[in-house]
């Protein structure tokens, strides 16, 4: 992939993750009846980072952790030209009456989150669902979906592409924006 414009470097990225973690600790306390669920693929890696941060800051915290695949819940899955490859859903608990923290890397049109909420209902009816994203692209929302916890907000034109890169995958924590002409 061509080199994009650097939006956030590694140090600020780590500070942003720490801030998101602290906000969750402040709002959820001991995390009783709470679960953190990452949206496959990239939301899972961010969710793991958030979960590890919470556990290191507050060792008494107990919460369930899951990975949610939304491939066949998307409203556009039949319109793709290439075959879809689903990821694995790993949720070995019910979300019935739990507080769910849904985690994804980028909130753009809202369609991924709509699909995630539909897929989540297969595991019960949660008491609440809150959304944590590293990047909120603010414009171009197709659905009335809003993040409860946001790392950064980016205003980007329609065709721009925002990528959250994580140390355990790309060897560096950073956020890049690519122009429409990649």
Verbal overview:
The protein is of the alpha/beta class and 182 residues long. It has a single domain (5-77, 89-178), classed as 3-Layer(aba) Sandwich (Rossmann fold). The protein contains four helices and eight strands; from the N terminus they run βαβαββαβββαβ. The protein has helices at 10-28, 42-57, 111-120, 167-170, and strands spanning 5-8, 34-39, 64-68, 99-107, 128-136, 149-153, 161-165, 174-178. The strands form two sheets. The protein has a five-stranded parallel β-sheet, sandwiched between helices. α1 (10-28) packs across α2 (42-57). The termini are close together. The model has no long low-confidence stretch (mean pLDDT 91).
The tally of beta strands, per DSSP, is 8
What fold name stands as the CATH topology?
A: Rossmann fold
Instruction: Give the fraction of residues assigned to helices.
Output: 25-40%
Give the CATH architecture.
Answer: 3-Layer(aba) Sandwich
| Beta-strand share of residues | 25-35%
Mean pLDDT across the residues is 91
Order of helices and strands: EHEHEEHEEEHE
Count of distinct structural domains = 1
So what's the overall shape? Answer: globular
Return Rg in Å.
Answer: 16 Å
Query: What is the straight-line distance between the termini?
Result: 8 Å
Q: What structural class is derived from the secondary structure elements?
A: alpha/beta
**What's the tally of helices?**
4
Q: Under the CATH scheme, which class?
A: Alpha Beta
Largest sheet: 5 strands, parallel
Which parts are unreliable, with pLDDT below 50 for 5 consecutive residues or more?
none
Neighbour order of strands in the largest sheet: 3-2-4-5-6
């Amino acid at each position: 992939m061509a080199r994009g414009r650097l939006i956030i470097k590694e140090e600020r990225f780590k500070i942003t993750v720490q801030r998101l973690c602290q906000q969750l600790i402040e709002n959820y306390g001991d995390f009783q009846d709470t679960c953190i669920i990452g949206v496959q693929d990239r939301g899972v890696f961010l969710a793991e980072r958030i979960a590890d941060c919470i556990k290191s800051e507050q060792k008494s915290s107990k919460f369930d952790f899951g990975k949610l695949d939304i491939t066949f819940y998307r409203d556009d899955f039949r319109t793709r030209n290439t075959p879809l490859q689903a990821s694995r859903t790993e949720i070995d608990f019910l979300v019935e009456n739990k507080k769910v923290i849904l985690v994804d890397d980028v909130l753009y049109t809202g369609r991924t989150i709509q699909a995630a909420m539909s897929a989540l209902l297969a595991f019960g009816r949660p008491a609440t669902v809150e959304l944590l994203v590293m990047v909120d692209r603010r414009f171009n929302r197709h659905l009335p979906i809003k993040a409860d916890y946001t790392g950064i907000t980016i205003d980007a034109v329609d065709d721009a592409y925002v990528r959250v890169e994580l140390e355990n995958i790309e060897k560096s924590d950073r956020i890049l924006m690519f122009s429409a002409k990649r």
